[in-house]
Please model this.
Amino acid sequence: MNRTSNYELTIIVPVYNEEDNMCALEEKLSSYVQQASVPACILFVNDGSTDHSLERMMQICHRQPHFFYCSLKKNGGLSAAMKAGIDQVESKLLGYIDADLQTDPEDFERLLPYAHEYELVMGIRANRKDSFFKNLQSKIANGFRRMMTKDKATDTGCPLKILHTDCAKRIPFFTGMHRFLPALILLQNGQMKEVPVRHYPRVAGVSKYHLWNRLVSPFLDCFAYRWMKKRYINYQIGDTNLSDK
Model:
């Protein structure tokens, strides 16, 4: 057990070279934690940043009593950072938001009413503030992913999600798995709910996404998912005498 067990919701924030966003992150996240409808904390995951992101998040965690961090020894990518965060979480629910603040932490309140009924509640970015080319890439990638996974998710790339922690810990992790959370939850016979959330343009820092990891890599990862799905073990125990009498 760790200190996240004292909360109902732990919000994972992967960070890679986001030093210019850290002040805004502290302001927005601390404001949300103070007004959240459930006891909530923040878990920064430093993904091997080469700028001053780690130093600044350590300072934030020193100032803010409900903020925690862990730091990877080297950059492993978004899926690795998410797994590292999930492995540390002991609260009943875990949330996810990107460090670029293109979604608003306050919109977790739009997801929470459904969080106990559905194993995964995820946002749909309404009125996306990205470029035409970026939106087109996402639409193509989402369409191909839906065809391959049959998950029916509208916007799996939306960086605002809440999951049941026990379900998240059972997800079979692989590079690129963050694109397949709905499909991976459905593999566990879980349920998914989508809720419209607000979306904003990036105001600081530099996007880590480009043509390869927005379009080509997701295309290849779909085949990895299909391979894994055929071999995924999902059993249900019908009877046992292991329980205490």
